[in-house]
Design a protein that fits this description.
This protein is mostly helical and 169 residues long. It has 5 helices and no strands. Among the domains are: 56 residues; 47 residues, no CATH class. The protein is 67% helix and 0% strand.
């Protein structure tokens, strides 16, 4: 009979139905005593590994703690030295530390003036930021007036009673 392929498929299906082949080198069955001994050895190995790991972590923790303490001490000394150097520099220069920068919110007239300056700069194809205008104005004011005169010009009656907070509806 000619082989049409169906015979081969049937053989493959029959081989699959038989189940897996037995191992060629089967392991010998382990007795209860051998199993207990093996489990005891594995438990001892795990305990020993855990003790080693704990000892390593403890050594690492102590070395990290010592390193952290040394770093803190070094940082503290460095900060003290920097502070002393700053104090000495201020004493030598006779100046004090500059106050932090202040934010300025322009009112309507100032905004319109800054807008007019920006338009004039645009007409000349230049770009002049508002901060440059403010710096120029402060330099001119510094040339024209002393700080005492500026305080006198700006001081006036103190507003004691006024609207504070958000208006109610």
């Amino acid at each position: 009979m000619p082989a049409d392929g169906l015979d081969e498929l049937e053989e493959q299906a029959a081989r699959r139905r038989r189940g897996p082949q037995p191992p060629r080198n089967p392991k010998s069955k382990e007795t209860q005593e051998e199993k207990k001994a093996r489990l005891e050895r594995e438990r001892q190995e795990r305990d020993e590994a855990r003790r080693r790991r704990d000892a390593e972590e403890e050594a690492k923790r102590t070395s990290e703690e010592e390193a952290r303490q040394e770093a803190e001490e070094r940082d503290r000394r460095q900060a003290e030295e920097e502070q002393q150097a700053r104090a000495a520099a201020e004493a030598a220069a006779g100046t004090k530390k500059r106050p932090p920068s202040a934010t300025w919110y322009p009112d309507r007239e100032n905004e319109e003036f800054l807008w007019t300056v920006a338009q004039a700069a645009t007409a000349r194809r230049e770009k002049i930021p508002a901060t440059a205008v403010i710096r120029l104005a402060l330099r001119r004011l510094e040339d024209q007036m002393s700080p005492e005169k500026i305080v006198e010009a700006l001081s006036g009656p103190v507003q004691t009673g006024g609207k504070i907070g958000r208006p109610r509806r």
